[in-house]
Amino acid sequence: MSALENRTVIMSGGSRGIGLAIAKKVASEGARVAIMAKTDQPHPKLEGTVHTAAAEIEEAGGEALAIVGDVRDDEQVQDAVRQTVDRFGGIDIVVNNASAINLAPIRDLEPKRYDLMMDINARGTFVLTRAALPHLRESAHAHVLTLSPPLSADPSPPEPTDPVAAPMAPAPGTWPPPAEAPAEPEPAPPDFGAPPPGQ
């Protein structure tokens, strides 16, 4: 039996790309997957919606819950967690997959684009993990996986001659924070994982 059999995963993003690939893989091993993503209707430039992703997850062998929502909205995140727990009975794994990236040099990067990246990549990760934490603490298999956009689309190291013009994008930074020291014995905290940027 797979370690993911009958486990519940909640994922931000996931209507396409690596998030959908992860969701289908864990579904094929028996996990139940709730996906929170903004894409409700087909987009002319982006493939897939939260609903087509849910259908693909079910085709892969898992149960799926499609939740239309924005990880930047605290209430929508709380509602996504509530819907997941109501449907599946708990949460075992959080996958912070939603991300935004803009590889413009600092001089060309508008503050509103920088704010968007921070709101999704760092704050969204914090808000979803925090909302799910009470349910993770009840799980015997609690894990948090945080994905990060690459810091650069160029695999070669940056030239030190013009550091101000180098492309930039935020990674979750100091995420995950150290586990809180409990005042009294509690279940073990969830495992956290964040692959290196660009991997």
Tell me the name of the CATH homologous superfamily: NAD(P)-binding Rossmann-like Domain
Order of helices and strands: EHEHEHEHEE
Structural class: alpha/beta
Q: What is the spatial order of strands in the main beta sheet?
A: 3-2-1-4-5-6
As a whole number of angstroms, the C-alpha radius of gyration is: 18 Å
Largest sheet: 6 strands, parallel
Topology:
Layout: E1 8-12, H1 17-28, E2 32-37, H2 50-59, E3 63-68, H3 74-88, E4 93-96, H4 111-136, E5 143-146, E6 191-193
Helix pairs in contact: 1-2, 3-4
Describe the model.
This protein has 199 residues and is of the alpha/beta class. The chain has one domain: NAD(P)-binding Rossmann-like Domain (Rossmann fold), CATH 3.40.50.720. Helices cover 32% and strands 14% of the residues. The protein has helices at 17-28, 50-59, 74-88, 111-136, and strands spanning 8-12, 32-37, 63-68, 93-96, 143-146, 191-193. Strand 2 (32-37), helix 2 (50-59) and strand 3 form a beta-alpha-beta unit. The protein is globular.
What are the main properties of this structure?
199 residues, alpha/beta, Rossmann fold, six-stranded parallel sheet, 4 helices, 32% helix, 14% strand
Short description:
The chain is of the alpha/beta class. Helices cover 32% and strands 14% of the residues.
